[in-house]
Amino acid sequence: MKAMILAAGKGTRVRPITYTIPKPMIPILQKPVMEFLVELLRQHGFDQIMVNVSHLANEIENYFRDGQRFGVQIAYSFEGRIDEGQLIGEALGSAGGMKRIQDFNPFFDDTFVVLCGDALIDLDLTAAVKWHRSKGAIATVIMKSVPREEVSSYGVVVTDENGKIKAFQEKPKVEEALSTNINTGIYIFEPEVLDYIPSGVEYDIGSQLFPHLVEIGAPFYGLAMDFQWVDIGKVPDYWRAIRGVLLGEIKNVSIPGHQVAPGIYTGINVAVNWDKVDVKGPVYIGGMTRIEDGAKIVGPTYIGPNCCICSGATVDNSVIFEYSRLGQGARLVDKLVFGRYCIDKTGERIDLEAAALDWLITDSRKSLPSQPPTEQRVIAELLSNETL
Questions:
Q1: What is the distance between the alpha carbons of residues 180 and 158, in angstroms, rounded to a whole number?
Q2: d(CA 186, CA 51)
């Protein structure tokens, strides 16, 4: 069976992570989110997978290759051009990406599934496809019910008593929402749906294709299912996803490494004297990371590989990407550290270099002076009593 993963977007709402990592490659405790999707597809018999790529396409292609090591076949449709030797991404939109593949050579010749590449799901795809076919649908949107007070954060789907889609509401006010079922970005299509997508232009599934199907009265349905759906479309979503994994709230995602104490997991060769640090789980510490004596780590916290947490530093309820160094006396609470950026759980970020704080939180591979300048030592003393 055939499927498609949408992976061409720039991931602007997940910046700065997506400056260097395409959204489908964002790691959930060392494993790209798209890998979980590939595994799910394989489990349900979808072994031929097309992936449209554009932004940082090489990162995706070099990791997944032809899919052989994941037990599937994968091919890629690049959306963009080469300009002066550089790949320039020019995404065609979710529907335009499907049409480009079909125009190149008809690939979709039977019922197929399309997944957005930025969510963790445990959906029973087999049951969903069976329902779709039983309705004689040309397209089906997999929906999920959310509490009414949350509808304004999502695209709402309105159906009749038979499940046929009547309308969509994009992030409606709570009092104006006509349904509590939301669009999860999981779709089931018949090849005929591609006849409604123009060739060679940017065209979107949600905002263009779907309203057209409603307008012409196509057999277009919504199926509400009970499954776990963890979206990482924005930085706060990603932060919550990591917390959820560490707290055991997300199914089918295990904490890697080995458990050295209750709730404390590590990769290999972590340099730490457990008798001289204060660690409260759940915590994951990546391989080749150094935790100096006197450091304090409070979970749920993820510390990537090759990091250094210096003496007297505190990491509380935070996510730290690989090769990060947290200096002496620094206090990191409810933060995400990625390269030169420190981001809070609302998505607000500090450019550490621009703020002249890169001596306090920086790349662990840098050579640093044994003592920062006098004025920076004063800042460090202030930060030791405050939260960065």
A1: 9
A2: 15
Q: Is 313 strand, coil or helix?
A: coil
- Read off the pLDDT of residues 131-171 as tens digits, 9 standing for 90 and up: 999 999 999 999 999 999 989 988 999 999 999 999 999 99
pLDDT digits (tens, 9 = 90+) for 223-274: 999 998 888 878 888 888 888 899 988 877 888 889 999 999 999 999 999 9
pLDDT at 380: 45
318: Cβ contacts below 8 Å, ≥ 6 apart:
301, 302, 332, 333, 334, 335, 336, 337
Predicted local distance difference test score (pLDDT) of residue 203: 94
Nearest to 244 by CA among 233, 257, 230, 258: 230
* Cα distance between residue 132 and residue 135, in whole Å: 5
Q: What would you report as the CA-atom Rg of the chain, rounded to the nearest whole angstrom?
A: 23
- Predicted TM-score (pTM) of the model is 0.86
381 versus 259: the higher-pLDDT residue is 259
Give kind and range of the element (H or E) at residue 168: strand 165-170
Asked if pLDDT for residue 129 goes beyond 70, the answer is yes
Ramachandran angles phi, psi of 309, nearest 5°: -110, 110
Q: What is the DSSP letter of 164?
A: B
- Six-digit token pair at 71? 């037990």
Distance of alpha carbon 329 from the chain centroid = 32
Euclidean distance between CA atoms 270 and 237, whole angstroms: 28
Interatomic CA distance for residues 348 and 44, integer angstroms: 39
CA distance 243 to 247: 6
List of domains in the chain:
2-231 (3.90.550.10), 255-384 (2.160.10)
Q: What angle do CA 278, 283, 285 make, to 5 degrees?
A: 90
Q: Give the residue ranges of DSSP H helices in the chain.
A: 33-43, 57-64, 93-104, 125-134, 210-215, 235-246, 374-384
Q: How many Å apart are CA 379 and CA 307, to the nearest integer?
A: 22
Take residue 164 and report the two structure tokens written for it: 């046929």
Handedness of CA 153, 202, 105, 74 (dihedral sign): negative
